[in-house]
Structure formats: structure tokens, C-alpha cells
Queue: 2 jobs
Job 1
Amino acid sequence: MNDQHTRTAAVAADLRVVLGQLLRRLRAQAEGSDLTKSQSAVLVRLEQGGPATATALANAEGMRPQSMAKIVRALEDAGLVTGSPDPADGRKTLLGLSEAAREEFRTGRRAKEDWLTRTIEAKLADAEIEQLAASIELLERIAQST
């Protein structure tokens, strides 16, 4: 192995560790939810992709429709998901986020962004904030690679 490859491997390992720590800290800022990971994943999928049938959600999450039905039922009971007839096929139900779920997303994101803003301002000098801003483009390129 050459020196550059060794350095790149070390940077990759350090980046993975630091990003994991940062994600855990961000998650901690909006904790208080009793949702399972599967329930949270469904809510995120509905927020990002819009209304979907339970079958489409099950396929997207790689699970059986029966398992998805339990998740959807729990989310409906919690008032986070609502159903309406599918305009393309009235026999199906389109699931979407309730206003309560949308508000939880807004509140959770605000808490994370507020914590991150306060932390950046407290821990970094102006020049370091500029370095961080410049690194975001690089991280986006890495994240979007296949």
C-alpha cells in the first residue's frame, strides 16, 4: 500500500467514527419518542416520499405486508398516520402523515438545528466555521456517490 492510500483509509475510519458520534448527539436532542426504529422509518418515508399504500411501504422497507400492517396500526393509534381512499384505486388506502406527525418532525428538526448551531458557535472560531462550511460540499459528494 502506498502512503496516500494509508492516509485515506485513516481519514475514512476517523470520519466514520466522528459522524457516528455526531448522529448520536443529534438524535439525543430530539429524544422522547416512544417509536420503534421501524415506525420512525415509515414516518420518514412518508414525509420524504408522500402518501403511499401499506403494500408499497412494506416493499420499500423490505418486510412482509402483515408486519407493515402492525406498524401502520400503531402509528394510526398514536395519531401520526391517517388514511384516505386511493384516487387511482378506491379499494386501497393511501397513508399519509397527520398534522401531529408533521409538527413532531418540525419540532425535532428545530431542536437538532438549535443544538448544532449553538455548539458550532461555542466551539468553533469564525475561520473554523468557514472550513466546516467548505467541507459540507465534499461530504455531499461522498454521500451521493454510488
Job 2
Amino acid sequence: MTFRAKILGAAAGGGLPQWNCGCENCNLARAGDIPSQTQSSIAVSATGRDWAILNASPDIRTQLATTPELHPTDLRALPLRSVLVTNGDIDHVAGLLTLREQQPFDLFASAEIHGVLDDNPIFSAVNPAVVPRRVIRLGETFALVEGIEATVFAVPGKVPLYLEGEEVATDLEGEQTVGVHLRCGAQSVFYIPGCALIRPDLADRLRGADIVFFDGTLWRDDEMLLQGLSQKTGQRMGHMSMAGTEGSMAAFAGLGVKTKVYVHMNNSNPVLRPDSAERAAAKAAGWTVAADGMEFRL
């Protein structure tokens, strides 16, 4: 078996260009000067026939249409076997509503994330009689799709924006934000599209992995403030920045990860420009900046 991961969407919530944003990156993408990107999702397979999707992006209809491996193989037959969501953020669950067409697949999530879906009656359109809601416990290993086992684990993060109260903890560790450890034979792959910081236990978990797909939301913590796009820092949004002594590039140095891939980039992030100094710096640190349609094989 050959592990395959296809980037369905490389951008964070809003995509690139974001519909209401006139920042430099969004304007360049509208003009066709840099590649547009859809919202955060990957698809994985060990057989090339059976696929799982990690996070159901609001752009999933377009992503499925542009990915031949996921096209229908018969009148109502599809290679999609399961969907796993890592948190309750809109950019990771809204696509489930597109998958409401009485198409069977398994929906994996933690009990807390399933609770968020259960509490919103609109998600009942994804009929549980057709799409079983599989509750996965932290640390439990289960078959995600033929040839690939998965284990979810807590990473520092926060509750979805629509569940925030007056006080917001951005480094909670529990079922609200999880990372995924994928095993295909001897291959070890991690998918962590949202993470507020890398504590020593997480660093030890990732050490020596074959591939890590990691949160690349912002280049620097105050990026959106400096561009006049928001009053929130990356930390306030529950995301770790790439650059700086506290950034993910520094945190991954010395971990011996063979392939490091940034996913979930915000439209403000300068690494989305192929000719930027920031893209060059990320490449020099051994990182690949994901783009829609990119594929990784082991």
C-alpha cells in the first residue's frame, strides 16, 4: 500500500481570495497573479480506491469536483468512505451540509465536536441513519479507511468562534481541538491544522515523523493588526505563528520530521506569495507551503 495525501484546500477560513477582503494577497489572487486557494481540508488513502477526508470545508463541492480520485465511480457510488473533523470551526464542519445527499460514509469526531453538531438541528440534514456518527476518544486507535489507522490527541486551542463567551481561553487541551496521527504500515503522518503552541509532549509525539501537516495560519502574531484587517492576534485566534522564537519553524527545528507542510494559511499570510521573502525563509527552514491539488506519497 502507498500512503497518499491530497491537499483539497490549503487556506484558512475565508479562503484566498476572501470574498470581502481587499488585502494584497486577495487582490493578487483575484488578478491571477498568485494561486487562489480553497478552505482547509485534505484527503488520504492507502489503496487509491478508498478515501477519507479530514475536515469538511465549505468549499468541499468544488474540491470534490476538481479531484478525480474522489469522483463517482457509478450512479451513486463514491470512493469517499469517511470524514473526520478536528474541531467545530465553521471552515471545518460547514461542508458536511454539502454531503447531505443520502451518501453513506462514516463521520468521525470527538464526543465534544459531535455534541456541537447535535446541538445544531441543521446538521440533522446529514442523516445519521445514512451517515453514522462515530465518536472517537482521545488516544483511541481506529480504522479511518482501508490501510490507514488513526489516533486523535488533544492540542492547545480554543472553542469555535460562535461558542466563545466573555472570557476566552486559547490554549485549552481537550476534545474541542485535536490533532490526528495517521499510520499506514510503518509510515507515520500527522495532521494538525489548528494549534496554539507546541508543548514538550507534543514535540516528542511529532519527533521523527514522516510527514507533518501543520497550522500555518499567520506568519507573525500581529500580522492582521499590522495590515488593518483585524484587532485579533494569532494567539487570540488560537493559532501559532510561523516566524519568531516562539513560532512553529523554531519549534520544529531539531525534531527530525522528514517532510514538514504548512496548511490552513490565512489570506493575510505573505507565504502565499511564491516570490515573497517569507516563502523563501519557510523553504530554507525545510517547509513546504501547501497549495490546492498538491499530493504527497510515501
